[in-house]
Amino acid sequence: MATEEEDVWAKATKVADDLYEIRDTFFPQNADDKTSKLQHESDLALNLLDSIPAEQRKLPARRAAYEYLRGKILDVVPDYRKEAEDHLSKAVKLNPSLGDAWLCLGNCIWKKGDLTSAKNCFNLALSKGPNKKILCQLSMLERRMAQGKGFYSLFFSSQLLLVILLCMVSGYLWSSEANLSVFELKISLLGISSADNQAEMVEESIQHAREAITLDVKDGNSWCKVLQTYNLGNACLTSFFVTGTWDHSKLLQSLKAYQNAEKDERMKSNPDLYFNCATVNKYLENYDRALAGFEAAALKDPSLNASEEVEKMVNLLNKLEILLRGHSKSKRLASLASTIGAVNLNSSYKRATLDALSEGLNKAVAVLGKVLLFVKHENITPLYFLVCDSDQSCFVLSVYGIRNDTIKEGDQLTLLEPHFRNIDFSWKEKCYKFKSIRVDFLEQVLVNGKALPPHQAIRTSIYAQHKP
Questions:
Q1: What's the whole-number mean pLDDT along residues 276-304?
Q2: Residue 264: its pLDDT value, please?
């Protein structure tokens, strides 16, 4: 009799866990199919749970487990359900040591927008001992809370979109970092104190993500560890933007985390993994990898509208190619190049032309050039300019963290320690070949021989918002 009772409870627990496996790994072409499947499976799970005799459910040792499982099953859908919160609240009151119940309760409360209470749930659970799942959720919540108050926001529903400024896409809502639901876009001009506080909170998010992975080290390539690795990638990418898009290492850390998560076969069905890797590669100027990643994401989930990202990138690359070809033969180019004058530089910098640059970061090097034009495109960041050096070599300049009215046509620029890329790849039988310099922060640029004042800096911040 006892064995039969144990079997029923074990089966109910497994069914609840299987529900979340579906939520985290099932990505149909039609988002409604996922909603229908989750609703159908959750109804079956509730029927199984209700088949347990009432007298067994009311036993002190079982009552908390029943409330927890019922709340967990109800909470699997993306929308907030008060009924789920009520059951989970009862569970943690009856048995405060139920760590997963605290996790589910925090996620449920998060859905209704009470982030502080959600964080309290996670912290209360952690006070009873380290828990990798809760550390992972806390990491996501801290990134969400880093946005602060009083900013203009736009919401785009998607699973795990890394919405970059106003250029990204919409999709459907789901929980879990493996298929993160919604990303909230924040574009704000931040004061130093506010930006520092945001960066500090995101760094705490990264720390908690690392702690979760450390706790999971014995589990090898467990699914939980894969999700935690993915969470770390999202945290690093968010940090890249919050800190002003200058710390290139954050992008590389993010890409490495995504690549590690990608090794798990289950993640290969997740379109958001391809989307996020593509986003990182886009800002690393690995345009070929970015295009391939967005295309793969679009094939796996058309609702992500990743195909629009492909179209935007191709439009930009085509425009750059046409502009470079047109200006490289213009008489105006020789005239502008001849007006590039000397600039008083620190003796530690060596002046160089484009052809003398090495791939990557060029330390202690300064490149002088004239702005030919500002390149308008469909995204807000980065800013693109066509520039020529004294040898009349044209290149694309991508600028982050500077107001769009700071650099104007005809200005003389001094680029300190430029990050140089020689772009050369083919996409859909078309070859793209041009030279590119990236400017990551204000101090890298002198405009007409003068350093830029602090008020010309702008922090463009995005937040990966997990909405359970």
A1: 90
A2: 77
- Band the pLDDT of 147: cuts 50, 70, 90: low
Among the listed residues 111, 183, 190, 112, the one whose alpha carbon sits nearest the alpha carbon of residue 154: 183
Look up the CATH number of domain 330-457: 2.40.50.550
Do 313 and 289 touch, CB atoms closer than 8 A?
no
Provide DSSP, 109-137.
HHHTT-HHHHHHHHHHHHTTS--HHHHHH
Name the superfamily (CATH) of residues 1-129.
Tetratricopeptide repeat domain (1.25.40.10)
Q: Is 155 a residue whose pLDDT tops 70? A: no
Q: What is the mean pLDDT of residues 251-269?
A: 81
Predicted local distance difference test score (pLDDT) of residue 93 = 94
- Average pLDDT value for the chain: 80
Measure the CA–CA gap between 71 and 414, rounded to whole angstroms. 60
Compute the distance between CA of residue 141 and CA of residue 410 in angstroms, rounded to an integer. 46
- In the structure encoding, which two tokens stand for residue 275, read together? 């989307």
Q: Which amino acid is present at 428? A: K
Domain with CATH 2.40.50.550 in the chain: 330-457
State how far the Cα of 121 lies from the Cα of 116, in Å rounded to an integer. Answer: 9
pLDDT band for position 74 (cuts 50, 70, 90): very high
Residue 92, H or E segment: helix 82-94
Longest distance between any two alpha carbons in the chain, whole Å: 94
Cα 130 to Cα 66: distance, rounded to the nearest angstrom: 24
Give the residue range(s) of CATH 1.25.40.10 domains in the chain.
1-129
Q: Which of 28-32, 323-327, 370-374, 440-444 has the lowest mean pLDDT?
A: 28-32
- pLDDT surpasses 80 at 218: no
244 φ/ψ sector (left φ>0, alpha ψ -120 to 50, else beta): left
d(CA 272, CA 303): 11
8 A C-beta contact, residue 141 and residue 119: yes
Residue in 259, 250, 200, 205 with CA at minimum distance from that of residue 400: 250
Q: Higher-confidence residue: 268 or 116?
A: 116
pTM of the complete model: 0.73
- 60: amino acid identity, one letter: P
Amino acid 444 reads Q
* Bridge partner residues of 394 (DSSP): 388
Give the integer Cα–Cα distance in Å for 262 and 270. Answer: 9
In 3D space, the residue among 404, 313, 438, 416 whose CA is nearest the CA of residue 368 turns out to be 416
pLDDT at 231 over 50: yes
Residue appearing with tokens 């200006």: 327
173 pLDDT higher than 90? no
Distance CA 402, CA 424 (A): 27
Q: Which residues contact 439 (CB under 8 A, 6 or more apart)?
A: 397, 398, 399, 400, 402, 415, 418, 419, 445
